[in-house]
Write a structure and sequence with these properties.
278 residues; globular; two-stranded antiparallel sheet; mainly alpha
């Protein structure tokens, strides 16, 4: 039985990596299909997590808005439509209030708040991946370099943290929220991430080695906070995994929790680097 579980875990991880790399490396159209699906499924898991705490949401309206925001961001990043198109989101938020008036809800304010929270927590951070994909190297042209690097560093950091934590972990990082995380594991993951950044600098020369190391540091720091935040939310909801779409690995929110905090900060870092150093 243990071997079967390990095989399922390995198979789901391999499929996940193949799908993700296919979306990143193949072309922008496969990318937008795969990452749109990932974003909406992740947002749906977030809404289920909120509902586990007894908070009602306008889930379907939130998912529709999330779909719209992610695709809008893709076309803005691709420079097909102007950034002023984002003003449409104001209408969608106002209509959420109008829609809620007609609902028989015990607490309209919390319902609106958690519906918007699903968009702010998942969709907006995931939407920054669109700008990372079209950022810096060739404005308006899809480039996989930064996207691939972001996910490689996240994966390497996670693997390094698990290995170092399993071997040397003694001092808890944040026991109240995530009892299994240790300072030793976090440090080990960071060391692996810096090694990965060095390797990436040999293949991708748009950033210097120090800039790649900063790229890794930002990913590790904010990815860790993203992981801790999702652990905190799951703890409040009383659940172990956000979903079961990936056997042995939980849900997509479990897989992209680090990305939700790391991606916006990497996008900001790339824009600052581009402005001051390019």
């Amino acid at each position: 039985m243990l071997k079967v579980d390990l095989l399922k875990r390995l198979l789901s991880a391999v499929i996940f990596v193949i799908v993700l790399l296919g979306g990143i490396l193949f072309n922008e159209y496969l990318y937008v299909v795969i990452f749109t699906v990932i974003t909406i499924l992740t947002q749906a898991e977030a809404y289920r997590l909120f509902e586990k705490t007894g908070n009602k949401t306008q889930k379907y309206y939130g998912l529709f808005t999330g779909l719209f925001v992610f695709l809008l961001s893709f076309f803005v990043a691709k420079e097909i439509i102007p950034p002023t198109s984002y003003f449409i989101i104001i209408f969608l938020i106002i209509f959420l209030f109008v829609y809620e008036i007609y609902q028989n809800s015990e607490d309209h304010f919390l319902c609106i708040a958690f519906t918007v929270f699903g968009i702010v927590y998942v969709v907006i951070p995931m939407s920054t991946l669109n700008f990372i994909a079209f950022s810096g190297i060739n404005e308006g042209i899809f480039t996989y370099e930064y996207l691939l690097s972001l996910f490689v560093i996240i994966w390497v950091n996670d693997t390094g943290a698990y290995l170092a934590g399993s071997k040397f972990g003694k001092n808890k990082l944040f026991e109240r929220i995530s009892p299994n995380k240790t300072w030793e594991g976090t440090l080990g993951g960071a060391i692996f991430a810096f090694i990965a950044a060095y390797a990436l600098s040999l293949f991708f020369t748009s950033l210097t080695l120090p800039q790649w190391l900063i790229f890794a540091a930002i990913t590790v720091i904010f990815g860790t906070y993203g992981d801790l935040t999702e652990s905190w939310l799951k703890r409040k909801a009383g659940i172990k995994d956000s979903g079961n779409i990936m056997p042995g690995h939980g849900g997509l929110l479990d897989r992209f929790d680090s990305t939700l905090f790391a991606a916006p900060m990497i996008f900001l870092y790339l824009k600052i680097t581009e402005y001051f150093f390019v």
